[in-house]
């Protein structure tokens, strides 16, 4: 099959405004309260589309806010890309988290040397770059294997 390129009759612009949300409520809303004449004019004369940028719409758990990286990943892929947060959550839930080869070899090494596992990382419920549930799950796996654990938490 031969495809025939379709040329737009006029220029097309894809304008992604990171951090520029849409909400009707003016309370604490810099977009509505701000003086945005150019943006206002463009939205009056040009077609506009809004995308869901959080939760299941971008491969995150329901209610989890998105971020720039998540948004660009999904836009670039042209589909919903399941993010690390729900993938790790699922692995913890189904038990496959404790079967990760690198974790198993670390446990074996620490058992043979009698060492302590020092875990360093972000500890918060934010879910953007980390989640404390993942650190706690890792601690449980190590403790269950008899490995002493020291947590060096970075708080955000």
Automatic annotation (TrEMBL):
For whether the record's keyword set contains Nucleotide-binding, the answer is no
Q: Which residues form the Metalloenzyme domain?
A: 11-79
The EC number(s) this enzyme carries: 5.4.2.12
- Occurrences of domain BPG-independent PGAM N-terminal (ranges): 88-156
MF term (GO), any? phosphoglycerate mutase activity
Query: Does the keyword Ribonucleoprotein feature in the UniProt annotation?
Result: no
Mark the transmembrane ranges.
none
Enzyme class, one word? isomerase
- Record GO cellular component, one term: cytoplasm
Annotated InterPro entries: Alkaline_phosphatase_core_sf, BPG-indep_PGM_N, Metalloenzyme, PGAM_B_sf, Pgm_bpd_ind
Family, per the entry? Belongs to the BPG-independent phosphoglycerate mutase family.
Protein name listed in UniProt: phosphoglycerate mutase (2,3-diphosphoglycerate-independent)
Q: What is the lineage of its organism?
A: unclassified sequences, metagenomes, ecological metagenomes
């Amino acid at each position: 099959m031969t495809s025939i390129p379709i040329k737009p009759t006029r220029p097309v612009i894809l304008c992604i405004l990171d951090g520029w949300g849409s909400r009707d409520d003016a309370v604490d809303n810099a977009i509505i309260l701000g003086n945005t004449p150019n943006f206002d004019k463009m939205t009056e004369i040009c077609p506009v589309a809004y995308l869901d940028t959080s939760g299941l719409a971008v491969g995150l758990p329901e209610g989890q806010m998105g971020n720039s990286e998540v948004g660009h990943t999904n836009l670039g892929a042209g589909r919903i890309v399941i993010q690390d947060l729900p993938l790790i959550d699922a692995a913890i839930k189904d038990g496959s988290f404790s079967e990760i080869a690198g974790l198993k070899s670390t446990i074996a090494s620490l058992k043979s040397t009698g060492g302590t596992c020092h875990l360093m990382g972000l500890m918060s419920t934010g879910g953007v770059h980390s989640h404390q549930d993942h650190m706690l799950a890792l601690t449980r796996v190590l403790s269950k294997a008899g490995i002493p654990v020291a947590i060096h938490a970075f708080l955000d």
